[in-house]
Write a structure and sequence with these properties.
Layout (H helix, E strand, L loop, with lengths): L1 E3 L2 E9 L5 E7 L2 E9 L5 E7 L2 E9 L5 E7 L2 E9 L5 E7 L2 E9 L5 E7 L2 E9 L5 E7 L2 E9 L5 E7 L2 E2 L1 E6 L7 H14 L33 H7 L12 H6 L5 E8 L2 E9 L2 H13 L10 H4 L4 H20 L17 E6 L15 E6 L1 H10 L4 H9 L4 E4 L9 E4 L4 E6 L1 H20 L8 E9 L4 E8 L10 E5 L19 E2 L7 E3 L2 H20 L2 E2 L2 E9 L3 H16 L18 E4 L19 E2 L5 E7 L3 E4 L6 E8 L15 E6 L6 E6 L3 E13 L3 E2 L2 H13 L10 H16 L5
Parallel strand pairs: 27-28
Antiparallel strand pairs: 1-2, 2-3, 3-4, 4-5, 5-6, 6-7, 7-8, 8-9, 9-10, 10-11, 11-12, 12-13, 13-14, 14-15, 15-16, 15-17, 17-18, 18-19, 20-21, 21-25, 22-23, 23-24, 24-26, 25-26, 27-31, 29-36, 30-40, 31-39, 32-34, 33-34, 34-35, 36-39, 37-38
Helix pairs in contact: 6-8, 10-13
Length: about 750
């Protein structure tokens, strides 16, 4: 026995009834330290343990012959590790929660190799694939197939530069036959610009060697092991482009001396729809320059910014945003930290810069169009980011990093463009002029509200920017925290306003967990710990009062549900029916056998050393206190998954109750009540009333929520809309009402309909 601080560490051997054997260090009756565990199946693990979990560095050998050496967290491969599969495939790189994520190298047994980025066990981001036939692709991937810009080099020396969509050539590209040596400098410049647009440094092709922070997960013999990737699958989905070199036989022409000819091509989902031969000889280039000099002014038609970006909207906006944010953050970060002043909110609190395509002394060259950049109130938003402990470098890399931004569909009617950062921490949304004005007017009060109430549920803003194109067209953006930035899967999403008129989603528009549902689609009521509910309702009331003071309406509670063990539903219904069949009545818990439901989550006392305390875009403040845990700070334990901090709007446990057999839509006047029926007595003829019990589905859920769309003022247009709709519908059911009534209705809806008191 050896003493380690307050605890005693001992060595020992333990054998379970199923034949599992552990031999190693113990602390506080848990496997902690170094040891060896053997399972009856023949699998074994030798390495570090913590609190009874595989935690640290170790080697796992499965019964099938797969071997993993590297880091572990919560019984899953996490950090740096190397896995050798039984079919001789090898992956060496970063892991996250049991699957490759980050930078890594995968070598197939047939000789094909991939070096680059991974996400959720799939090839995604920037990477290089090299086939055994000598072909190489250097570019962007998504879900295991080529997607985005890239350079394909053929074994015979030819090069194709273009774009891909879902593994197929799509859009315009250029083919350079072998022998075009005079064009190699231009090719190198293009590849460099490809890197600069996406903020890619050469280090992304190397495996990062830093270890990840540790979090616990419960122990199970079925250690998560990724399915090996089939090189045949990737080869079939990302076929070699050697067939391209036979079109018009460019390789043969190059060998015959036509080294100054390149082929401009255009594809539509893998089908060649256009090919044009471009002569790049010296004489041709001179003639082209002379012709260009004759016309120094080109006519530009006036269009909306959507038309200007037509066909390349996502690409140009993405690149312009990254260039501007990178410039702004780099300029404001070195300024010494200080408290904001009234002048920081004024009209002069702006950073302006012109980004010409060819670059300048202060801006890099880029492949987009010329644009002007404006950053609003940079010191204010810098301090807001610091309130949430967002590191400037992490913030910049999240938005301006390797894989850029993802264009996502807007769930609302605004027509705004939405972007999601690659790590899903930030959402970027376009604003109209009136929304920009509302935010700037609100910003001083908003800043102090967020500062005073660290658990506020209101949208977190981290940057406000504008892009102005030549011709005067302007595009405005705001950077926000993603309320659904979590490792857990969000199974349902709701946008709740507290109104009912038109607040439902058509069945034909519902497509899986990404669909945002509305008020009348919500059939659940969420019961939670007494203290958690009180804290939630109190903060909702405070936030609504603030929005009311700013004359804001039309905001929503964005609610995300993560269901734990959905298979519990079937067991619950069967148990109810069996109980009803036995007793013919609803027996209270204290008068009969209680109904015991399987638990998908547990509240445990908060331990800062064993939960992830990293800051996030929607995480701030101390853990919440739970009444059921003696008013102590608590963590949420998801058996077999993770241990999470419980904070307001983040990782909040609850039970979702829904009546069995309820209609898809409920009218406003439809009430939830116990049905009664009269039963005639056989002996004395007396009438007896027997309650017919109603059945409810009960789920363990984890809730994520926040108040969004807070930039709509109750202006003259909204007043007119209120007057018009009040004549057609019940004034209390429409969304557009005056701010005081809107806030009162929102609070009442939240505390009575969404989060009612637990009976």
């Amino acid at each position: 026995m050896e003493k380690n601080g307050r605890f005693c560490k001992i060595k020992g051997k333990y054998k379970w009834l199923d034949g599992t054997i552990y031999d190693g260090d113990w602390e506080s009756e848990k496997m902690t330290g170094k040891g060896l565990i053997l399972w009856p199946s023949g699998s074994k693990y030798e390495g570090e343990f913590s609190g009874g979990f595989l935690h640290g560095n170790g080697t796992f050998t499965s019964s099938s012959g797969c071997t993993y050496r590297g880091g572990w967290r919560m019984n899953a491969q996490h950090g740096i590790g190397k896995k050798e599969y039984s079919n001789l495939d090898v992956y060496d790189g970063l892991w996250k929660e049991g699957v490759p994520e980050g930078c890594g190298k995968y070598s197939w047994n047939n000789g094909n190799t991939y070096i680059g980025n991974w996400k959720n066990g799939r090839i995604e981001g920037r990477g290089v694939m090299k086939w055994t036939n000598g072909d190489t692709f250097d570019g962007f991937w998504m879900n295991g197939v080529r997607h985005g810009s890239g350079v394909y080099r053929f074994a015979d020396g030819g090069v194709y530069i273009g774009t891909w969509s879902n593994g197929l050539r799509d859009g315009k590209g250029t083919f350079y036959p072998d022998g075009s040596t005079k064009l190699l400098p231009s090719l190198k410049k293009l590849c460099t610009s490809l890197d600069s647009e996406n903020g890619l440094a050469s280090e992304t092709r190397q495996v990062v060697s830093s270890k990840s922070k540790s979090v616990k997960r419960s122990l199970s013999e079925s250690i998560p092991v990724i399915n090996r990737l089939s090189s045949r699958q990737i080869s079939h989905r990302t076929l070699s482009l050697s067939t391209e070199s036979t079109l018009q036989d460019p390789a043969t022409e190059a060998m015959s001396g036509q080294s100054d000819v390149v082929y401009e091509r255009e594809y539509a989902q893998g089908v060649l729809i256009m090919e044009r031969i471009r002569d790049c000889s010296v004489s041709s280039v001179k003639n082209k320059r002379q012709n260009n000099n004759k016309f120094s002014v080109s006519h530009v038609e006036k269009n909306s910014y959507m038309d200007i970006f037509r066909g390349h909207r996502s690409y140009f906006l993405n690149l312009n945003l990254q260039l501007g944010i990178r410039y702004t953050v780099g300029k404001i970060t070195p300024v010494p930290a200080r408290e904001v002043r009234s002048s920081d909110f004024g009209d002069r609190a702006r950073i302006r810069m012109f980004f010409p395509r060819d670059g300048s002394k202060l801006t890099p060259p880029h492949c987009s169009i010329d644009f002007y950049w404006k950053d609003y109130c940079p010191m204010v938003f810098r301090n807001l980011r610091e309130m949430f402990k967002l590191d400037a470098a992490d913030y910049m890399m999240s938005i301006c990093g390797d894989s850029g931004l993802r264009d996502i569909t807007s769930p609302g009617k605004s027509g705004s463009i939405f972007y999601l950062s690659n790590d899903e921490r930030f959402v970027i949304k376009t604003l109209n002029k009136s929304e920009l004005k509302v935010l700037l007017n609100m910003l001083p009060k908003y800043y102090h509200h967020v500062k005073d109430y660290e658990n506020t549920l209101i949208t977190k803003f981290f940057g406000l920017h504008r892009i102005k194109l030549r011709g005067g067209k302007k595009v405005r953006f705001v950077v926000m925290g993603n309320m659904f930035c979590t490792e857990l899967h969000i199974h349902r999403r709701y946008d709740l306003k507290g109104s009912s008129q038109g607040r439902y989603t058509d069945k034909d528009k519902i497509s899986g967990s990404n669909t945002t549902l509305k008020d009348l689609d919500l059939k659940y009521k969420f019961h939670m710990d007494k203290n958690l509910r009180e804290s939630l309702i109190k903060q909702i009331s405070i936030d609504c009062k603030f929005l009311e003071s700013q004359n804001i309406i039309d905001y929503s509670l964005l609610l995300g549900l993560h269901f734990r063990a959905p298979e519990n539903l079937k067991a619950l219904e069967q148990t109810h029916h069996a109980s009803m069949h036995r007793q013919k009545s609803l027996v209270p818990a204290d008068e009969g056998e209680p109904l015991i439901l399987p638990k998908g989550l547990l509240l445990v006392t908060h331990e800062p050393s064993v939960v992830n305390t990293a800051p996030g875009p929607h995480i701030r403040g101390n853990p919440l206190r739970a009444y059921s845990m003696g008013d102590n700070e608590v963590d949420l334990l998801l058996p077999g998954t993770a241990r999470l901090r419980v904070q307001l709007g983040v990782n909040m446990p609850a039970q979702a109750n829904r009546k069995v057999g309820e209609d898809h839509h409920i009218n406003n006047d439809k009430k939830m009540m116990m049905k009664k029926k009269k039963v005639e007595g056989k002996d004395d003829g007396d009438d007896k009333e027997e309650e017919e019990a109603e059945l409810f589905e009960v789920y363990d859920v984890v809730l994520y929520m926040g108040i969004i769309d807070i930039l709509q003022a109750y202006n003259l247009r909204k007043r007119a809309e209120n007057a018009y709709k009040s004549m057609k519908f019940d004034p209390l059911t429409i969304s557009v009402v005056e701010p005081k009534l809107y806030a009162q209705r929102f609070i009442k809806f939240s505390q009575n309909k969404v989060f009612p008191q637990t009976p």
